[in-house]
Amino acid sequence: MSARAQHSHAAGTVVDGRVRDLQEHRDLHYPVFAKDVGTTAPQELLRVSQVNVPVRLQSEEQDATVWPEDYLIGDLNGVVCLPRGLAEKAVALMESQVEADGRIARDLREGRPFGESSREHRAKVMKVEDL
């Protein structure tokens, strides 16, 4: 499935469920993110049924809709959905967040307690409501 998605110029795949064969995805250098990993195939064979339609995610942890124009950003820690309308605001926040992280890391290397450093430097971080 990843080979086909890659051939279709997909940037990656997010699965609201379980996947297997992680090494095969990695060997393709194709990003795949899922809730869980297993060793057997899902109950039924999966296939793409729709493209560029809203997807509603429902579980005990979440109840959200991902729209086709939203940004899905994933790494080893998980996937977040950034609504397109908030993208410019999020980018504006990133610089101050990265700077605060750097100052906190410096303080920690110098032996300063995390809580104290975080309170000082996080207070200076721009927040969404400030934009």
From TrEMBL:
InterPro entries, A to Z: RraA/RraA-like (IPR005493), RraA/RraA-like_sf (IPR036704)
The keyword Magnesium appears for this protein: yes
Residues that hold substrate according to the record: 20
Gene Ontology molecular function terms on file: 4-hydroxy-4-methyl-2-oxoglutarate aldolase activity; metal ion binding; oxaloacetate decarboxylase activity
Keyword set includes Magnesium: yes
UniProtKB keywords: Magnesium, Metal-binding
Cleaved signal peptide residues: none
Stated name of the protein: RraA-like protein
Originating organism: Alectoria fallacina
